Amino acid sequence: MLPSSIRDNPFMPVASALLGVACLSLMDAYMKGGALLAGAYSATLLRSAFGTAIILPVWLGLGGRWPRTAVLKLHMLRGSISAFMALSFFYALTKLPIAEAIAISFIAPLIALYLAAIFLGEIISRKAIIASLLGLAGTGIIVGGKFGGGSYSDDTLLGLAAMLFSALLYACNFIVIRKQALVSSPIEATVFHSGVSAVILCVLAPWFFNLPGTEALANIGAAAVLTIFGALAITWAYARAEAQLLVPLEYSGFLWAALFGWLFFEEAVTAPTIAGTALIVLGCWIAARKRTEQTAL
Description:
single chain; mainly alpha; 14 helices
């Protein structure tokens, strides 16, 4: 339990969201390794199963109880969306470099800002829009540098299509997370997020599941642990700040993706990548500054 002086600090939701993004970016690197070895479906199913096995005993030990019907429906909705979002995302990682894949996925936070206005009634500030547009512009520069040559392989096109589909589901997931965070504890939300995803994906197991080897299992296990930490941190943040503040912080994930892609797979960081990253960081700074100004008033 955090001391009240730290827990009530207005910057804590921002810090928690940034930590969550860093954990999930490292998870992406481990999952890419696992998916390349075992296949995207098997790696995604096992990540959800491992994550559930890790967090479920903790939740039960802390007195976790079966949620009421309205909350359970939100858990089921988020878990179902996340199952196919994760599957398409990890498939795309097997076809694209991590940094470029993450860059393409940044269209999701932009969509989510407007979904938050429609479904959550949040008022979108001018600074939130500017922050998101800067992030999107940076993403466009990166994608343009990657695909601007006009020659695409089949794998690249498959990866791009899968990532766009995942990004659309990701935008919907942001809205569900915000609703879920207001009525559920972070640990309960994480339990059902992993558990429901695992159950949904199990339906396809007779046709697509292959038991991975030791190296793949180690990668998937590490990814499961990082998923739990990342999900807890992000859910905690969304329970204490508006989506329009936290959504642009997702762009910081590109910095980690570029680093981990280089460390794990020797994926080069190009000039367009650096230029795009600068705009993404600027967008994140504007989003964080908005919260600071609100506190000072």
